[in-house]
């Protein structure tokens, strides 16, 4: 980011993914021009070369087919387009496959700021500290309208949608301070929903974590809520209601009453709490009430972190 806060036309690239996105963009630009320039010139040249010189010219056109030529200008661009399709599909797939050991951070978008919560209980607003060279996964919820977390120097962006959990991940290589934006028009002060991504050397980051005042670790806050909200009354060990135990649920396949099987990721856990009737676990009655208007986004994040902590499979390191 430049000192005046503006995003340069071509921001710095600070991850391997950002370099690949740049290569794709430049390659695609080159392809478009390679195809468009000869056609543009041919249109102008033929227009001039074969212009009608006088009224007597025979208007009947004769057509000499050149099959190989006609086939080639269909097949070659098609293959080139497929190359770019495959290339970008592979990049897109990477975006949706975070490494299992990624460090996790929770983000909440709201009009008009970004709130971040580290698993250890460190909270920040409009600034996100991350270690360099390590995979980081941001798990996001919106408190009000659709926002979009945009990290231009990492070339990634992901919508943050109310009532749904989305995530993105990255591995930033160069320590420094970069821009963090909202890329979805979200109301009058949208343009002020900006912040800073601070990439730190791993040791400096650990020191920052240790030196930052931490609230209750997320999973502990979630555990307290789990009791306060009465979840434990049904999901607890000796509950009167028959409800599934939540230990070891995270990332496990769950068979649903509809016959489908889904993986219990953050999105499923959030959906189960906000819209329990939408995905009922096979073999159980749909008696769980919705907590849609009961829990705030931060409470939801804490509950999800708690359920994840029960499985020992979460990537968080406190
Ligand atoms: C009235 C009893 C009841 C309460 C209170 C309740 N649940 Fe449930 N919950 C159930 C039942 C029954 C199911 C299984 C049927 C279904 O999926 O709706 C379930 C399913 C779930 C699932 C999916 C479990 C799986 O194995 O896939 C999650 C996650 C969950 N509840 C979390 C919570 C949380 C968090 C709270 C508190 C905010 C809560 N529940 C409160 C009864 C309850
Ligand atoms: Cu926004």
Automatic annotation (TrEMBL):
Membrane topology, as annotated: Multi-pass membrane protein
PROSITE patterns (alphabetical): COX2 (PS00078), COX2_CUA (PS50857), CYTC (PS51007)
Residue ranges of the TM segments: 24-48, 68-92
Reaction(s) catalysed (UniProt annotation): 4 Fe(II)-[cytochrome c] + O2 + 8 H(+)(in) = 4 Fe(III)-[cytochrome c] + 2 H2O + 4 H(+)(out)
Name recorded for this polypeptide: cytochrome-c oxidase
Subcellular location: Membrane
Sorted UniProt keywords: Copper, Electron transport, Heme, Iron, Membrane, Metal-binding, Oxidoreductase, Respiratory chain, Translocase, Transmembrane, Transmembrane helix, Transport
Superkingdom field: Bacteria
Role noted for this protein: Subunits I and II form the functional core of the enzyme complex. Electrons originating in cytochrome c are transferred via heme a and Cu(A) to the binuclear center formed by heme a3 and Cu(B).
Gene name, Swiss-Prot/TrEMBL: coxB
Natural source organism: Marinicauda algicola
A biological process from GO: ATP synthesis coupled electron transport
UniProt-listed InterPro entries: CcO_II, CcO_II-like_C, Copper_CuA, Cupredoxin, Cyt_c-like_dom, Cyt_c-like_dom_sf, Cyt_c_oxidase_su2, Cyt_c_oxidase_su2_TM_sf
CDD domains assigned to the protein according to its UniProt record, in alphabetical order: CuRO_HCO_II_like_2
An annotated GO cellular component: membrane
Entry keyword annotation includes Transmembrane helix: yes
Coiled coil: none
The enzyme's E.C. designation: 7.1.1.9
Pfam families attached to this UniProt entry: COX2, Cytochrom_C
């Amino acid at each position: 980011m430049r000192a005046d806060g503006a995003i340069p036309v071509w921001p710095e690239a600070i991850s391997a993914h950002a370099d690949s996105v740049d290569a794709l963009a430049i390659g695609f630009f080159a392809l478009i021009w390679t195809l468009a320039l000869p056609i543009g010139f041919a249109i102008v040249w033929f227009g001039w070369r074969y212009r009608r010189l006088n009224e007597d010219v025979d208007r009947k056109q004769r057509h000499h087919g050149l099959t190989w030529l006609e086939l080639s200008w269909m097949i070659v661009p098609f293959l080139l387009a497929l190359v770019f399709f495959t290339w970008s599909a592979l990049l897109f797939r990477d975006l949706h496959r975070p490494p299992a050991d990624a460090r996790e951070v929770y983000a909440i978008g709201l009009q008009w700021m970004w709130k971040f919560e580290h698993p250890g209980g460190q909270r920040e607003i409009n600034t996100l500290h991350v270690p360099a060279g390590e995979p980081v996964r941001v798990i996001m919820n919106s408190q009000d309208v659709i926002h979009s977390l945009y990290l231009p120097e990492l070339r990634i962006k992901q919508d943050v949608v109310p009532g749904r959990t989305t995530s993105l991940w990255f591995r930033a290589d160069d320590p420094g301070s970069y821009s963090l934006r909202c890329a979805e028009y979200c109301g009058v002060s949208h343009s002020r929903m900006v912040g800073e991504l601070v990439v730190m050397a791993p040791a400096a980051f650990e020191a920052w974590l240790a030196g930052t005042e931490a609230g209750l670790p997320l999973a502990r806050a979630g555990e307290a809520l789990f009791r306060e909200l009465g979840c434990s009354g049904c999901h607890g060990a000796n509950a009167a209601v028959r409800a599934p135990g939540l230990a070891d649920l995270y990332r496990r396949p769950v068979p649903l009453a509809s016959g489908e099987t889904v993986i219990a990721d953050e999105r499923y856990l959030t959906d189960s709490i906000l819209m329990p009737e939408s995905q009922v676990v096979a073999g159980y009655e749909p008696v769980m009430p919705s907590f849609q208007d009961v829990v705030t986004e931060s409470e939801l994040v804490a509950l999800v972190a708690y359920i994840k902590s029960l499985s020992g499979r979460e990537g968080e390191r406190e």
